[in-house]
Amino acid sequence: MSTSERFDCHYCKDSLLGKKYIMKEDTQYCTKCYENLFANCCEGCSLAIGCNSKDLSYKDRHWHDQCFKCAKCSRSLVEKAFAAKDDLLLCTECYANDYSSKCATCKKTVMPGSRKMEYKGNSWHETCFLCHRCQQPIGTKSFIPKDTGYFCVPCFEKQFAYQCCACKKAITTGGVTYQDKPWHRECFLCIGCRKQLSGQRFTSREDYPYCLECFSNLYAKKCVGCTKAITSLAGAKYISFEERQWHSECFTCMQCSVSLVGRGFLTQRDNILCTDCGREK
What is the pLDDT of residues 220-229, one digit of tens each? Predict the structure, then answer.
């Protein structure tokens, strides 16, 4: 037989004519050389996984099909669901019994892969995590814990939340109290200009809240000198004389404009004069 007609193992050079062989990357090997060079070692029995055996793999680890078993009960895992724990492969039943959490409601195992709810170290089947009031599954919706129960948001608002005295809707976060009544921050407004009062200085008249500006414009006394409102709410000092008021800085002589605060003064009709200007008259 000529060299061109030979068909040999790439590694040991034995003829492969009439024998079983394996191709790898366009190169032929006899089964013995292939197993020595390329066969994976079984995680179960530590023997090579030969050409006549199935090679089952998981995360770069390999098994004979007969060695691919649950590490606890030894049942075959071939074509079955399994779970991994600390490099051990377990059937779902063994994994659930040893490692899965128990439902806080029905006390049964929450099986791996099933839909569940977890909160503060407790677990529930999705269908067991119910609103304490309406007894409907909460699922992925928002919920609010209260005492030992859990409530969907609509039920919590109906049973526990304060209602804003302005819009009559539930107050779920924050809020303010005025006259022993609850308000949303965005609903607590000046009765005059409707500006939000939360976090601002305000006053009241006849139980209605006012911002300082509106209260001053509506109810504060007016300065005789500048005609602007005088309000002690903003810390302003003022002078009062014969039912007339002045800002301290506006209480000056009508003629020479000297300040009359703490000084004697004279009146001439509606005018206020310092004693020097009064004598001149």
Answer: 788 888 888 7
Q: How many residues does the chain have?
A: 281
Distance CA 208, CA 189 (A): 10
- The residue among 224, 194, 222 whose CA lies nearest residue 210 is 194
Is the C-alpha dihedral spanning 78, 79, 85, 91 positive or negative? negative
Q: Where are the alpha helices (DSSP H) in the chain?
A: 31-38, 92-99, 153-159, 212-219, 275-280
Q: Compute the distance between CA of residue 202 and CA of residue 10 in angstroms, rounded to an integer.
A: 95
Contact 218, 210 (CB under 8 A): yes
Tokens of 72: 């606890």
- Dig out the tokens for 114 from the structure: 């099933």
Please give the model's pTM, rounded to 2 decimal places: 0.36
Q: Model confidence over 74-91: pLDDT tens digits? A: 999 998 888 888 888 998
| pLDDT the model gives residue 69 | 93
Question: Over the stretch 150-180, which tens digit does the pLDDT of each residue have?
Answer: 999 888 878 877 888 889 888 877 788 888 8
